[in-house]
Please model this.
Amino acid sequence: MEFLKRFAENRGAVVGAIALALIVVMAITAPLIVPIDPMSTRGRPLLPPGGEFAFGTDMLGRDVLAGIVHGARISLMIGLISTVIAAAIGVSVGAIAGFFGGWIDDLLVRITEFFQTIPSFIFAILLVAIMTPGLASIVTAIAVVTWPPIARLARSEFMGLRRREFVEAAVLSGVSRFRIIVSEVLPNAVSPLIVMGSLMIATAILTESALSFLGLGDPNRISWGYMIGAARTVFRQAWWLSVFPGLAIAVTVLAINLVGEGLNDALNPHLKGRVRIQT
Amino acid sequence: MNPRVVAEPLVAIENLTVRLPEGGDRLKAVDGIDLDIAPGRILCVVGESGSGKSMTAHAIMGLVPKPLVSSGTIRFDGENLIGLAAEKHRAIRGRRIGMIFQEPMAALNPVMRVGRQIEEVFRFHGVPGPYDERVVKLLDAMGLPEPELLRQAFPFSLSGGQRQRVMIAMALALDPELLIADEPTTALDVTTQKQILALLKRAQAERGMGIVLITHDFGVVAEIGDEVAVMQHGRIVERGTVAEVLGNPSHDYTRTLLAAVPKLAKRPAVDKTGGEPLLSAKGVTKTYSSRTGLFGPRRTVEAVRDAGFSLARGQTLGIVGESGSGKSTLARIIVRLLTADAGDVRLAGVERNLLDLGSRDLAPLRRRVQMVFQDPFASLNPRRTVFEIVAQGLLAHGMSRADARRRVAELLELVALDPASALRYPNAFSGGQRQRIGIARALALEPDVIVADEPVSALDVSIQARVLDLLADLQRRLSLGMLFITHDLRVAAQVCDHVAVMQRGRIVEMGPSADVLFRPTQDYTKLLIDSIPGRGAFAAPEAGPTAN
Amino acid sequence: MPQLGFVLQWVVKALAVVLAITILNFFLIRLAPGDPAVVMAGEAGAADQQFLDQVRRDFGLDQPLAVQLATYVKNVLTLDLGQSFRTGRPVADMIFERLPATLLLTGTAYVFALIVGPLLGAIAAMRPRSVFDSLLMVVALVFYATPIFWVGLLLILVFSVQLGWLPPFGMQSMIPVKGALAGTLDVIRHLILPAVTLGLFYIAVYVRLTRASMLETATLDYVKTARAKGLPEWRVATAHILRTALIPIITFAGLQAGHLVGGAIVVETVFAWPGIGRLAFDALFQRDYNLLLGVFLISALMVVFFNMVTDIVLRIADPRIAGRA
Model:
C-alpha cells in the first residue's frame, strides 16, 4: 500500500496508467467495439476523416479506425511477449554470471558484450527477413536483440547481493544454493528489473513499429507500424493514414514510459526521478 | 583563566532550529540550541547518531537544504548567517570558515587533480595567481610527502589519511578564523587518526583559529578538545570545559555516554582449560591477484599470510588490526565463505582439515561454526520476517515449522528481544536490535564457535556496550568459543581472553590479552595502543569485570 | 607500455568481433528455410540452375560445412564480401560508395544531438522542478516515445508539403545546381529534415540522461566540499557536477554511435537519402541477403571502432580508469 501511495504521488505515472489501461481494454475488446475485419475493404479508398469513417479509409478502402483498434492487439502483444522472453534470457544469464562469478561469469559477459556490439536494429531486420516475416520471427528478433541490458543489470544486482552479509549468513546456515538465489537474492533484485522490463516493453513496441514500417510485419495482421508503412507512398495526399497510427504508437509508448518511471519512484524511492536509460 | 569570560565569541548561536525532512523520527534535527564558539579554542560537539550535531555544523556553513532552513540566529562578525544573502555567505565559506568532512574517500572530486582542487579556493576568493608555490607550501605544511608530485595526483592514488590532509589543506588555505571538522577521523584507522588529530591541534595553535569538532568519540574529545558540548535529540544537554565534563559530568546522558566508552581495561586472566583446542589454524594464506585487461600486468595482494591460532572452548580470541590487515579475510576463510590458498584449519572432533573439505562434507559441519556480521542493516534480508531470518538454518536442517517457531521464540528471549517480534520485518528494529537478531540467527544451530566480525563497530557507543555484554554473557552461558574481529583495542580488551594483532596479512603478536595489551613486545602493537584516543583520560580501573 | 597493451587489446577485440559476426552471418544464411544457394541468390527471378551452381561453387556450398565456413571467413577477412545478386557488383564497393552519405547524415544529427542534448539537460538539472525543467522533460519524453519514421513523415508534411521550405527527399536537387557553394547549400537544404528527425530522438535521450546523471552526481559528498570551499554555484555546477556527470554520457554516446546506422535505415528510407541505410532497405526489399549481410558486417565494424574511440575518450575524461591499469 506504501507502494500505491508512492506511485500515486507521481502525477505523470497516474495519467500514464490510466491511458495504458484504456489502451489495454481497447485491445482486449477490439472485436466487440469494432466487429469488422480491419484488413477488409469497407468503402471508397482514401476517404478523409469524418462522415461514415471517423478516421477515414486507406488506399484499399480499409477503415483506419478499425485498424487502430485492432492494431493495439499486435503492438501490445509483441511488446509484452518479446520482453518476457528477453527478460527470461537476460535474468537467467545475468543471475548465473553474477551469482557464480569466475569463468562462468567471464564467458557470459563476453557473450553479452558480443550481442551488445552487434548493431541491434540491423540484426533484428536480418533475423526477421531470413526467418520470413511473421509474428513469431518479430518476437524472436526483438527478444534476441534486447536481452543484453537486462542481463547486465541482473548480473550487477546479483553480484552486489551475493556479497551481502545476509546471503553469507544463509550460506552458513546451510540453505541450498538454489533456495538462496530464489528466496534471498531474487526478491531483492526484482524491482530494478521490473522497472527496466516495463521500459523495454515500450522500446519493443517502437522496434516492432519500425520493422512493420519497413514492410517486415506479419502481412496478414494489421499493426500500427504496418499502416504507416503501407501508406508511405500516399502520405502526402492522405495525412490521416500516418497521423492516427503514429499518434497511437506515441501515446502507448509514452504511457508505458510514464508508468515505468512511476514504478521506479515507487519501487526504488531512493532513486526517485532518476530513471536510467538503458544502454 | 576561565576561557568563557575571554573576549567576544567568534560565533554566537541563539535558539537555532533546523527541521528534519518529512518521515524522520522527530520534527526537528536541531531544536532551539544556544552555543557560543570561542576564538582560538577547540570546541567538541559530542553526540550519538541523529543527535543533530552534524546538522548544526552544516547550518553554520549554510549547507542545509533550503526547505529545512532554520530559524534563530547564527551571529558571525556582526552578521546573522541565517537568511544571509547567498553570495555573502559564499564569500565567508572557505575564506573565513573552512570545513572538512567524515569521508575523505568521497569528499574530493575524483576527476580533478589535487592541486587544482586546492587552487580553486584561492582563485574563487579573489586571490591573484600564480598559485603553484602556495599549493606546494600548503601541502608541505600538512606533512604530505613530495608535495610537488602530489599536487599533480588524482585523489584515487592517495591513502585515506593523505586525502584528509589534502582536505585540511583546502580548508586552511586562506587561514580561516574557524574550522568546522565533521567527524574528521571516524573513517580513518587509529594510527592515522592520531596523526590527523595532532595535525589539527598544531594548525590550531599556529593560526590561533577556532575549531568546532563534531565527534561521537569521547576519546577524541579527551585527546584534542578544550571545551565540549554534549548533544542529544537536537538539544545541548551539557556544556563545559573538557576537564569539567569528563571529570564531573552533571547530566545523566553524559554520564551514560562516558560509562559506555570502552576502556583499555585488564580482564581477569582465564585459566587455560586443558585438552585439545576447539578450533585451530595453521599457515593460512590467501593471495588476491587481479589483472587489468587482457595484457595488463598482474597485481597480487597478500591478504593473509601464514596466519595461525588456537581457540579453546569458552574462550574468546580477539583478532585486532587496521583496515586492510586481513582480519576479515581470515574470518571468512575460517567459516569457509572464502577459499584459502593454503592452510590447515581443525575443528575439535573432525579428522580432516576444514579447508580441504568439499561442499558435501562441509555441509553438516557448517552449523558448528556460525558468524555474526558487522553491518546490522546489510546482514538481515529486508524482505523476510525475523522468524524466517532466525529459523532459516533450522528449516534448512529439516526442523518442522512448529518446532522452529518454539525455538525462535526461545532464541529471541535469549538475546533479550520480545518473542512477538518474530513476525515483523527488520526495518521495524533499531541497529542494536538488529544486531541481536543477527546473534539469535548465529545461535540457532547451537554452534560451538561464533565468529564475530566487528559486531559493534556500526553501533553507537551506548548500544555497543549492551551488545558486547550480551555477547560475553551468551558466550559464558553456552560455553562457546569466540573469534572476535575488531579494529578497536579497547573493545578487544573488554571481551577477549587472548589477542592476535594483525598487520598487512600477518599476525605480528599473539598472547593473553593482559600481556599483549599491557606488555606489548612488538612495535606495531605499541603504536596501536599508543594511538588510542584519550588514553590518559580514560585510564580504567584495574581488572574490572566485563559485564554490567 | 600500457599504450601498446591497449592497442593490442583493441586489435584482438576487433578481430574477435569480425570473426564472430562472420560466423554468425554464415549460420544466419543457413538458418533460412531452404537451399542456402537459393537464399543467397535471392528469391526474385535470378535463380536458374546455372546461376545456382555458380553460387554453390563461389561459396563452396558443395563442400563440407567446416570447409564452407573456412572459405567464407577467408573471403570476409580479405574484404571480399561477395557480390550483390541484384546488380552483380561487389558488395564492398556498393557499401563504400554509399558510406559517405550515411556518415554525413548520422554525423550531423549526432554532433547536433551531443551538443544540444547535454546542454539542455544540464540547464534543467540546475533548477529541478522549475517550469523549464518540467516542460523540457515532457517534450523529451514525447520525442523519446515517438517513432522516428513518424516524426520524419510529419516534418515532411509540415515543412515540405505545407510550407514548401525544404525538399522532402534525396540528397541533391533533381536538376543539378551550378557551382561548389550552391551545390553545398543544396546538400545542406536536403540534409536539414533528415538530420533533425534523427537528431530529435537522440536529443531526447541525452537530455534525460544528462539530467539524471547530474542529479545523481549532485548528491555526492565532494559537491558539498566544493560548496564548503565557497565556490560560486556556476563553478560547482560545471567543474564539479557536470564534469563527472558527463562520464556516463560519454559511455552511452560511444555505445550509441555505432548503432546509428540502425536508426539511419528508417530515416534514409523516409527521406530517400542515398546512404547505406537506404541500401539496406532496398536489399531487404529485393531479398538481396548478401548485400544485407555486408551492411550488417560493416555496421558491426563501426560499432567496434566507436567503442574503441569511446574507450580512449573515457581514459582522458576519467583518470581513474587509466589509474587502475
